[in-house]
Design brief:
It comes from Blautia hominis. This is Ribulokinase. Keywords: Arabinose catabolism, ATP-binding, Carbohydrate metabolism, Kinase, Nucleotide-binding, Transferase. It catalyses: D-ribulose + ATP = D-ribulose 5-phosphate + ADP + H(+); L-ribulose + ATP = L-ribulose 5-phosphate + ADP + H(+). Strand 1 and strand 2 form a beta hairpin. The strands form 6 sheets. Strands 1, 2, 3, 5, 11, 12 and 13 form a 7-stranded mixed sheet that branches. By secondary structure, this protein is α/β, with parallel strands linked by helices. About 40% of the residues lie in helices and about 20% in strands.
């Protein structure tokens, strides 16, 4: 019997990647990555229009370019016959939202709107809607809205409704012109199939949608702004599709462009972190997966629905069918280290890395690994891009304590790594205190494969063994699994994601185990981290927010 394959496409913050996967065992036959041509637009639009602080936009055509480049590449590199590819699905950062017209064209692609910032696609880390998020939290709390407790008691500026509120307030003409607002993931599926199918995963975690109750009531939206009363019906659409469902079939046009077979099954889109659990073989509850990249998401399932403060949401069937999926996360991990090497490392270190023919990250990691725990005297808060869990506050900013005239770059680099580990321990502790035990800890994503020192620090800080996913492209592999499920067993795929995960998902034999001596020292440092965390993050001193306000005033 000829082998059958599926394609998974993972859209990250800086690039998109495709994998072509053998559905019998999850072996990756070929993979290809395409950086976004326009990157993340945080200061200017392509025409030079200046953006305000905390903005983050992307160009929708970059997403189609990923398909046009990576899919032909994996076909060419693997030599696989397109007739043997049974399905395709994608995953995406979220909430990454765009206004589109009646034909599904993003407004920013129309000449009359290309100079208007709010007509562009807002990336997940667009944090300029924090005021609107605060209003959402306050109004929902005052009204006793039941949905609020499912989202940890606070609304994030990264989500759908605050972003729509920001558009309505600052550019009402864009809000009125938009026929609807769609997740970028759902838009790409629309371009592949000709059918718009809303992802239940994205709607559940980012737009307050619930399997049993749907969206919040019209009265709630009216309380936010009278013009939002019918936002669900008019701008979002009430039809939401579950993970694993078939969104449609590849159109003739898309098939010709990509070199694939017309009529091939295309699965409903997923959120990038959530699709990763089956890729590492997780199908049981109470196993927390850290998806580590630009940011880190912590995803876990449970048989029970618990109200956990400071999480990003608990959604029935949101990750795996029949279970409640919990999301928490940190919005700045890989970005943390990238900021540091771009802005704070002297030229002599780059020259040393060049002489050794290694990357600057490898050089800093090597130097940092030789430091004793606590030797630098540094402690950092990992809030360079705000705090997602457990404080849910994008107005918080980063901090390093203990700098002296003898502080070296590798000491700061290690302190930043340790800060992200403390942030993850905070998330784990928060789950357990709320009655959702974390029985096993897993990791996937580029960082988990490339930086052994960092993973050992995480094991020592959390005092837990860490299992590592085999694939270096876990989200894309997870998407390929859902593509195989969309195709179904009769076409060579699987009828459930549980069957696909059993056959295609796995972890490495190597694990990271905590060192008791290291853990004892990190316990002391973590107590100091918690003191700073609560002082700056829970109202003890709002200096970060005051400074941010002064900064915004100065840039006007």
């Amino acid at each position: 019997m000829k082998k059958k394959y599926a394609i998974g496409v993972d859209y990250g913050t800086q690039s998109g990647r495709a994998v072509l996967v053998d559905v019998s065992d999850g072996t990756v036959a070929a993979q290809s990555t395409k950086p976004y041509t326009h990157g993340v637009m945080e200061e200017y639009l392509p025409d030079g229009t200046r953006l305000s602080p905390d903005w983050a936009l992307e160009h929708p055509l970059d997403y189609l370019e990923v398909l046009d480049v990576t899919i032909p590449a994996v076909l060419r590199d693997s030599g696989v016959d397109p007739e043997d590819i049974i399905g395709l699905s994608i995953d995406f950062t979220a909430c990454t939202v765009m206004p589109v017209d009646r034909e599904g064209t993003p407004l920013c692609l129309r000449e009359e709107w290309e100079h208007v910032p709010h007509a562009w696609l807002k990336l997940w880390k667009h944090h300029a809607a924090q005021e609107e998020a605060n209003i959402c939290t306050r109004v929902a709390g005052e009204r006793g809205e039941t949905f609020l407790s499912r989202y940890g008691g606070r609304v994030s500026s990264e989500w759908m409704i605050p972003k729509l509120m920001e558009i309505l307030k600052e550019a009402p003409e864009v809000y009125e012109q938009a026929d609807r607002f769609v997740e970028a993931a759902d838009w790409v599926i629309f371009k592949l199939t000709g059918q718009e199918k809303r992802s239940g995963c994205a709607a559940g975690y980012k737009a307050f949608w619930n399997k049993r109750e749907g969206y919040p009531s019209s009265d709630f939206f009216k309380s936010l702004d009278t013009r939002l009363e019918h936002v669900a019906e008019e701008k979002l659409g009430r039809e939401v599709c579950p993970q694993g469902a078939k969104a449609g079939e590849l159109t003739n046009e898309a098939a010709d462009r990509l070199g694939l077979r017309a009529g091939m099954a295309v699965g409903v889109a997923n959120v990038d972190a959530h699709v990763s659990l089956p890729a590492v073989g997780i199908t049981e509850p109470n196993k927390l997966l850290m998806i580590m990249g630009t940011s880190t998401c912590g995803i876990m399932c449970s048989r029970e629905e618990k109200m956990v403060p400071g999480i990003c949401g608990v959604v029935e069937d949101g990750v795996l069918p029949g279970l409640y999926g919990y999301e928490a996360g940190q919005p700045c991990v890989g970005d943390h280290f990238e900021w540091f090497v771009k802005n704070c490392v002297p030229a002599s270190y780059y020259q040393e890395a060049d002489r050794q023919n290694i990357s600057i990250h490898e050089l800093l990691t090597g130097k940092a690994s030789r430091l004793k725990i606590g030797e630098s005297g540094l402690l950092a808060l990992d809030w360079w891009n705000g705090n997602r869990s457990v404080l849910v506050d994008a107005d918080l900013t980063g901090m390093i304590l203990g700098l002296t005239l003898t502080t070296k770059p590798e000491e700061i680099y290690r302190a930043l790594i340790e800060a992200t580990a403390y942030g993850m321990r905070t998330i784990i502790d928060n789950f357990e205190q709320a009655g959702v035990p974390v029985k096993e800890l897993y990791a996937c994503g580029g960082i988990s494969k490339k930086n052994a020192m960092m993973m050992q620090i995480y094991a020592d800080v959390t005092n837990r063994e860490i299992f590592i996913g085999v694939s270096d492209q876990s989200p894309a592999l997870g998407s390929a699994m859902f593509g195989a499920v969309a195709a179904g067993k009769k076409n060579g795929g699987y009828d459930t994601i549980f069957e696909a995960a059993k056959a295609m998902g796995r972890v490495e034999e190597r694990t990271y185990r905590p060192n008791p001596e290291h853990t004892a020292v990190y316990d002391r440092l973590y107590q100091e981290f918690k003191t700073l965390h609560d002082y700056f993050g829970r109202g003890g001193n709002d200096v970060m927010k005051r400074l941010k306000k002064i900064k915004a005033e100065a840039r006007r």
